[in-house]
Specification:
Layout (H helix, E strand, L loop, with lengths): L4 E5 L6 H13 L10 H10 L3 E8 L2 E11 L2 E4 L20 H8 L3 E7 L7 E9 L4 H12 L1 H18 L2 E7 L2 H17 L10 H10 L8 E9 L2 E11 L2 E9 L8 H14 L5 E6 L5 H4 L2 E11 L3 H16 L4 H18 L3 H24 L5
Parallel strand pairs: 4-5, 10-11
Antiparallel strand pairs: 1-2, 2-3, 3-4, 5-12, 6-11, 6-12, 7-8, 8-9, 9-10
Helix pairs in contact: 2-7, 4-5, 10-11, 11-12
């Protein structure tokens, strides 16, 4: 350890001196430019997420950093997990505690992070991807992308014409704050989770409350949340919930009507949202983790974050290795391959659910889904 002291406070207990230090750290550290690091996000999430707190780190009597977090039993997670797409210690570069030091200082059985911003040897790399607009703005970005990936963008132009011919003129609106539209989006996401056999992160209640609270928040430095929607004629076809602050625009929860998937309404909405938001001064559009196929055609920038589970020596580590061995047997030697998938499922379940009974139920469902997927993959494998 390097002499850090920690005080655990509620976000509402931080005074102006703490918030002033927080803002100064953000100003000094460009790696913390995401809306998730803004004081306004912590204030709102600190009121909504169960068992939320802020670790205030100090050294030699001076504030050295902050870490907003939540507790679920003996586990510690970033505040608002599993909804928080970027997290880390809010501090000047190189001056705050490391991930391992945070884990020791907070004293939990484990600290689970999925997108840690900051250098650490722990865990493994993951990439998030962005659209970075240059001096030519949206038009310049689109011209370059269309020249590079002509087939993809010509297909989307055809999809736009097809949907318009079938359903009527297309209309995009952004800056929407209607809670009924948010409920429509949440229902879409819950249906998607059911269809894809994923844990329903909105079943616990507080996660939906968080989105509703953020939707009504207008914070400092342009912090806020809003939605954009795509209508075809009178029919709402897609909607997306986003966070934004400064010149950063973070696409967070997209949803579209599944029956119109052939027309790519979600992709069309993202493009039109960028066009409208760019005119207001936004320059970075963050699409979160890479993976979905369309992102490689859109994004011209990337950041590396770290995913890690820091375990207290002893029982936690032993149980973790035992679980991997069990999955290895069920997955015919692919325990290590399944580890990340199972860990991410469990992290989401543990973050959402605040009772041990609901966490156990979710874990059993996740394990069953992972093993079924492993067996299906084994059955469908083509012999050499």
């Amino acid at each position: 350890m390097t002499g850090f002291k920690v005080d655990i406070l509620k976000a509402s207990e931080l005074g102006e001196a703490e918030w002033a230090a927080w803002r100064a750290f953000l100003e000094a550290n460009r790696a913390l430019n995401s809306p998730y690091f803004r004081p306004s996000f912590t204030r709102v999430a600190g009121q909504v997420s169960p068992y939320a707190a802020v670790a205030v780190f100090s050294r030699d009597g001076e504030i050295a950093g902050f870490f907003p977090h939540q507790r679920r039993g003996s586990a510690i997670q970033p505040l608002a997990a599993p909804m928080n797409d970027y997290h880390g210690v809010i501090a000047r570069p190189g001056e705050g505690p490391t991930l391992e030091e945070v884990s020791v200082l907070l004293g939990g059985a484990r600290l689970n992070v999925t997108a840690w911003v900051g250098d650490t040897p722990l865990g493994e790399d993951r990439r998030t991807v962005q659209v970075e607009l240059g001096d030519d703005g949206y038009d310049g970005w689109y011209a370059e992308r269309r020249a590079t990936f002509g087939k993809f963008f010509k297909d989307k132009e055809r999809a736009r014409r097809s949907m318009e011919a079938e359903l009527g003129p297309l209309r995009v609106e952004r800056g929407l704050h209607d809670p009924k539209l948010l409920d429509w989006l949440i229902d879409l996401k819950r249906d998607q989770y059911r269809r894809t056999n994923r844990h329903d992160i909105f079943a616990c209640g507080w996660t939906a409350d968080l989105l509703h609270a953020l939707l009504q928040t207008q914070g400092e430095n342009g912090f806020g949340a809003s939605m954009a929607g795509l209508w075809a004629g009178d029919r709402l076809t897609a909607i997306e919930f986003s966070l934004h602050a400064g010149d950063q625009y973070h696409f967070w929860f997209p949803g579209y009507e599944p029956s119109l998937a052939r027309c790519s309404p979600g992709i069309l909405l993202s493009m039109d949202t960028m066009r409208l938001a760019a005119a207001l001064g936004y320059r970075t559009f963050d699409f979160g983790f890479e993976g979905e196929h369309y992102k490689k055609y859109f994004c011209n920038g990337a950041h590396v974050v770290r995913e890690a589970m820091v375990l207290k020596p002893g029982l936690g580590a032993t149980v973790s290795q035992a679980a991997v061995r069990a999955l290895d047997l069920a997955g015919e030697g692919r325990g290590e391959k399944l580890r990340a998938s199972v860990r991410r499922r469990w992290a989401a379940i543990e973050a959402c659910e605040t009772t041990s009974a609901n966490r156990f139920k979710g874990a059993m469902q996740a394990a069953g889904a992972a093993l079924a997927k492993a067996r299906a993959s084994s059955t469908n494998r083509v012999p050499a």
